[in-house]
Design a protein that fits this description.
Blueprint: E1 2-18, E2 30-41, H1 48-61, E3 68-72, H2 83-99, E4 105-107, E5 112-120, E6 127-131
Parallel strand pairs: 2-3, 3-4
Antiparallel strand pairs: 1-2, 1-5, 1-6
Length: 139
């Protein structure tokens, strides 16, 4: 798993085009204020348990109780999780985070290209990168 995160004053994502064969036909606009956006690339061997645990720990460690937005950046992965597995993990991830105590979670629709508008907070520590090695030794 590789994730970039950014605390945003405002985040907007507007679906433009489906790029995965079995992607949902119902992609939605997402507009929110004061949130942390996680751009997430899943790697071969990643599991829902590992990804949700890493994100939960990162969110709690940062001590930021902002709403969380998950956006797929799987196309940037060196060894991507197979599409069907990645799609299922992205669909299940918001509920896993809620079950871990992260109450405000939203996500863009996996398999879609979005036009994104981001206004970040521009403060030290408001942006970062997370890399978690899985059991296969990939990021």
């Amino acid at each position: 798993m590789v994730a970039l995160y950014c605390d945003a004053r405002q985040f907007a994502a507007h679906p433009v085009q489906s790029v995965v064969r079995n992607a949902s036909l119902e992609a939605h606009d997402l507009v929110t204020r004061e949130c942390t956006v996680f751009y997430l690339a899943l790697e071969a061997g990643d599991t829902l348990k590992m990804v949700s645990q890493e994100l939960t720990e990162a969110i709690l460690r940062r001590n930021r109780r902002l709403p969380v937005v998950i956006h797929s950046f799987n196309h940037l992965s060196d060894q991507p999780l197979p599409v069907a597995d990645a799609q299922r993990l992205y669909q299940d991830l918001p509920d896993a985070l809620r079950n871990a105590g992260i109450t405000e979670v939203d996500s863009t629709t996996f398999g879609w290209i979005y036009a994104i508008e981001l206004h970040d907070v521009g403060k030290p520590g408001a942006k970062g990168r997370m890399v978690k090695r899985n059991s296969l030794g990939t990021a």
